[in-house]
Amino acid sequence: MSLTFEILAADGLARRGRLTTPHGVIETPAFMPVGTLGAVKGVTPQELAAAGASVMLANLYHLALRPGIDAIGRLGGLHRFTGWTGPILTDSGGFQVWSLGGLRTVDAGGVTFRSHLDGSPLRFTPEGVVDAQARMGVDIAMMLDECTSWPVERAAAEASWERTLAWARRARAAWNGGPGGLFGIAQGSVYPDLRQRAAADLAELEFDGYAIGGVSVGEPSPERRAVVEWTAPALPADRPRYLMGVGYPEDILHAVAHGVDLFDCVLPARNARHAVLFTRQGVLRMKNAKYREDPRPIDPECGCPACARTSRAFLHHLFRSGELTAPVLATLHNLRFYLDFMADLRQAIGLGALTDTAEQLATRSTGEDPPGEPDPGSLPVSSDPLEQRSS
RNA sequence: GGAGGUGUGGCCGAGUGGACAAUGGCAGCAGACUGUAAAUCUGCCGGGCUUCGCCCUACCGAGGUUCGAAUCCUCGCGCCUCCA
């Protein structure tokens, strides 16, 4: 097995672990920022690392379309190409089966996409997807799956799982045990027996890790949580578990408490670009008029480069003006918030205090920030102009 | 002085007899975003109300024609262009 996973501590079902990959160690539970095209939008690899990220996601479908897997191979692999030196996990394109629903057809053998860029056809098979990820030299490859939509009839969900399971077997057989690892993906929509069966089916195939897919596709939060509660404990305990596409901090906390180790979500990055910031005081919609003359930092308890010397008023101004710096600063902040959140969860599990701190941690991103009295002196200004952004 | 043009909701700008409280865009107010076709999308945006509807005031101003005018006519005012 090319990835090693150690469980360092446990707290109820929650685990504090360490996943060792060819390009570095991932302390879990971990949040993996999404860099679909090879970069988290607006963020350099150095900034990503400085924010505390230990692993980055990228996407096979998007990279296969542009610049192409062969080109990435000729350029020395995905790490060399992107400049991100830490672990990389690539998603297989299974999510695009759902998100690009109008641009693909699925058959027993695989998926045929019509490029969203120019309409040209692109064929994905379980074997081809494994091979492409191996050629890019990623640390964690994901099997090709069919991400079911929501809602979906039970019979359709079951048929879909039969197909995805067949793909899982083919992917497993095609994986040549390169330096990285291959993860299986459980589907089964919102049907408990299907979910549990999917977990058991995959476990037999002995993947390097197991993902829960088919969530974050529009289902209500209680449905999503139920899926986690059925599936996560049913997956092999000695391998990392990955909840795909989730989510808000409260959902991550819930999943961690049920034994999930890895997460990814576009939310912190996309919301940042849309001027929505996560803070320990609640959610801030930075374009709102109430921040026009708010001199406070975004989040006084945050150590990110934006909070170090950017007032809400200035960030508001940058967003209003369409200044590129705005989404960049906001993304650096939101990423740092998520990554700090995960660090706090890891610490809590290590102390056996997850349940105790759960409420306190969960309230961070809920609700609107309280108005508060603007305190003109509240923005800390460093006396050392070179201190900022240095990592 | 003469000729022609033009004046529309915070701004720009469609509309040239009824389907107009008036297309669009911007600005403004708010909301959504979950393995990224997303620096995107949605709602509101004259005033009031019991806001899937009703009432009032509205397209420079004042008159007029008409069943009916942002749209036609007259006068006035402002602005633009050309000629002297």
Task: Write a brief caption for the model.
This protein is an alpha/beta fold and about 400 residues long. The protein contains 15 helices and 16 strands.
Question: Would you kindly provide a written description of the structure presented here, covering whatever features stand out?
Answer:
With 391 residues, the protein is an alpha/beta fold. Helices cover 38% and strands 19% of the residues. The protein contains 15 helices and 16 strands. It has helices at residues 45-50, 60-65, 69-74, 78-82, 94-99, 126-136, 154-174, 192-204, 221-231, 249-257, 267-273, 305-309, 312-320, 325-350, 354-362, and strands at 4-11, 14-21, 24-28, 30-33, 56-59, 88-91, 104-107, 110-114, 121-124, 140-142, 181-186, 209-212, 241-243, 262-265, 276-279, 282-285. The strands form four sheets. Strands 4-14-13-12-11-10-6-5 form an eight-stranded parallel β-sheet. It has a three-stranded antiparallel β-sheet with strand order 1-2-3. α10 (249-257) packs antiparallel against α15 (354-362) and α11 (267-273) runs antiparallel to α14. The chain is globular. The chain starts with a strand and ends in a 29-residue tail after the last helix. The chain binds one RNA strand of 84 nucleotides through α5, β14 and α11.
